[in-house]
Write a structure and sequence with these properties.
single chain; three-stranded antiparallel β-sheet; 2 domains; mainly alpha; 7% strand; two-stranded antiparallel ribbon; 7 strands; globular
């Protein structure tokens, strides 16, 4: 079989003057290759791009890359399913193994004062079942992520938190606001504060809150809801210390969203000026976590279906 093209760069790049770019890690770049091979190897209905970009290495990166390069590939980069699955099993830990379950610090089966206005027995039973999901969503970063970050795309976090669930195995910025709203309803105030602590740690490290807790999210953020999270917690707890702790981070985030590439002045028809803050990802290629499917869609005829696939 012919060897596939092993270029680590994507052919789909935006203009060079598109703005600042924050490069991904060497591991993310390699996992994009793994993702592309999986995309070519499996049926599309059985392919989830996130399963491959979230893999953790069992061995060092250079050794793993060498082993991957030695696998026989077709011209389009596909591998036999048997060879590919044997390679993945030998050289990688499963996606999600870098997070471990931890008992929520302040979970109670039926907390005092839980939804006092809900009196209907059936509705209360349902609400308590939803409340019980916190025990299934509580996670902390594994010791391996802290000790060997080069083996993982997952980023270390200082304290345990809550994940959205399903294929979203890591903490996300936007989701955390709604998670905190739910935690406050469940009287889990300390867990809510812990989530804020984790998000502040990103501001301390990167200067802004990341889209999510993966190395491939370091080039973009999400709707800036950290101040709203602090406000919600303060309204429920009156915790002034949390506000004092968060204030420097909130000011830093405000500066980020008002920095040169994110701040714009819009002139309306009446010649009035309006300030606009834009997301402006610091990246000029397809998103690493979905690069295989995005690059594939860019080769399809321009249809609503192909556009939709670019955003999943």
């Amino acid at each position: 079989m012919a060897a596939a093209n092993h270029s680590l760069s994507s052919p789909y790049s935006c203009a060079k003057d598109s703005g600042p770019v924050i490069p991904t890690t060497s591991l993310v770049t390699f996992l994009e290759r793994i993702q592309e091979t999986a995309f070519q190897t499996y049926e599309r209905s059985k392919f989830d791009h996130k399963d491959f970009i979230d893999l953790s290495l069992k061995f060092d990166l250079s050794t793993t890359v060498k082993a991957f390069d030695e696998i026989s590939k077709t011209e389009n980069g596909s591998v036999s399913t048997k060879d590919f699955e044997e390679f993945i099993g030998k050289w990688f830990k499963s996606a999600g193994e870098d997070l471990v379950y931890v008992e929520p610090m302040d979970f109670e089966t039926e907390p005092h004062g839980f939804l006092p206005k809900v009196e209907n027995p059936e509705v209360r039973t349902w609400a308590l079942e939803v409340h019980g999901l916190w025990k299934k969503l509580s996670r902390e970063v594994s010791s391996s992520v802290h000790d060997h970050p080069e083996l993982h795309t997952l980023l270390p976090l200082p304290v345990p938190g809550m994940i959205p669930g399903s294929r979203f195995r890591e903490v996300y910025y936007w989701d955390s606001y709604w998670v905190i709203r739910g935690l406050l309803a469940s009287k889990m105030h300390e867990t809510a504060k812990a989530i804020v602590t984790n998000l502040i740690s990103w501001l301390d490290t990167y200067g802004y809150v990341l889209n999510g807790a993966r190395a491939y999210y370091t080039n973009r953020s999400q709707p800036p809801l950290l101040s709203a999270m602090v406000y919600e917690i303060y309204n429920r707890t009156g915790d002034v210390d949390l506000v004092k702790k968060a204030l420097p981070a909130l000011l830093k985030e405000y500066q980020f969203w008002n920095s040169e590439i994110h701040a714009m002045i819009i002139h309306d028809a009446e010649n009035c000026n309006h300030s606009l803050n834009r997301y402006y990802a610091m990246w000029n290629k397809p998103r690493p976590e979905a690069s295989a499917i995005v690059c594939s869609c860019l080769q399809l005829p321009f249809t609503f279906a192909s556009i939709f696939m670019l955003y999943i």
